[in-house]
Amino acid sequence: MSDVILFNKPYGVLSQFRHDDNNNFATLADYFNDKSLRVAGRLDATSEGLLLLTSDGRVNRAITHPPKVNNGNKQGKTYLVQVEGIANDDQLSELAQGVLLKDGLTLPAMVRYLEDNELPMPLWPRNPPIRERKSVPTSWLMLTIFEGKNRQVRRMTAHVGLPCLRLIRWSVAGFELGQLEVGAFVRVHLNAARLRQLGLAR
Fold it and tell me: Which end of the chain is least crowded, N or C, by CB within 10 Å?
């Protein structure tokens, strides 16, 4: 039986079980005591949202190194991105086409501007709050990427002049955060359809 845990990772929690003497961040050991669990796709300590954990090595590999399923299309990772400034059409187009970072050109992405009332779930207050400047508005984007360069989303939005203030992962590998409260988790049994989606048909 294959299961995946969906965890709404809070800000300031490392995607690892081992404590790091170099900072005061919490770790997954503060939330889970099952030593067989492994993280399937890391999330920075300063990022929030969906983190997947599983004790099934095949499932972990399928999520972190997805095979070419669904006619060769990779499964994306979707983020809610609060940025400084209001995105214009040129900036959105540049993000969608791919931007040139120091480690290469990013793959084309899917991006759209979100009004506050278009966010897919009610958001929790972040602790600490984002920095705010009275003279500079903020806005939200929904951005789906199909690769995993280091701190990619933050670097992409900064590259087009939209510094990232808050980053929440909404979905990965077909799993969504849904209405899961911050710091909470749910265990999902992988049925045959979900296994096929991951390229693990039985």
Answer: N
In the block, residue with structure tokens 């040129």: 90
Position of tokens 């360069």? 149
Q: What is the DSSP string of 108-171?
A: P-EEEEE-GGG-SSPPPPPSSPPP-BTTB-EEEEEEEESS--TTHHHHHHHHTT--EEEEEEEE
**Residues 156 and 143 sit within 8 Å (Cβ to Cβ):** yes
pTM for the model: 0.92
Neighbours of 65 (CB within 10 A): 9
Per-residue pLDDT tens digits for 161-189: 999 999 999 999 889 999 999 999 999 99
- Work out whether strand 48-54 and strand 185-189 pair parallel, antiparallel, or are unpaired: unpaired
* CATH number 3.20.20.140 given to 1-71+173-202: no
SS3 content of the chain, % helix, strand, coil (to 5): 20, 30, 50
Catalytic site includes residue 103: no
User: How much is the pLDDT for 2?
Assistant: 86
Reported CATH class of domain 76-172: alpha beta
Which residues in the chain are classed under CATH 3.30.70.1560?
Answer: 76-172
